[in-house]
Predict the 3D structure of the following.
Amino acid sequence: MPKKFPPEFKRDVVRVARRGDLSHAEVAADFDISIESVRRWIRQADIDDGVVDGKTTSEQNELVQLRREKRRLEMENEILRRAAAYFAAGSLPK
């Protein structure tokens, strides 16, 4: 499971990396994270700042939330369908 870093930490890493006086590898070593994390956070910060097209962090979070809600509703719907079938079968004449 990947480590979760707070948004403030990510912002600090991006700010240091954008200054330009250190390479991504040096920034990664200074903050004890992977180079790919630095690149990914910079790429996402560019999207959030409107520099590059893509899904912003808030849009991604909303999408995750909506998918979870959809999955929950589908499970509830399946439970209700099974309950209705069970009770309907019990009320049939024998």
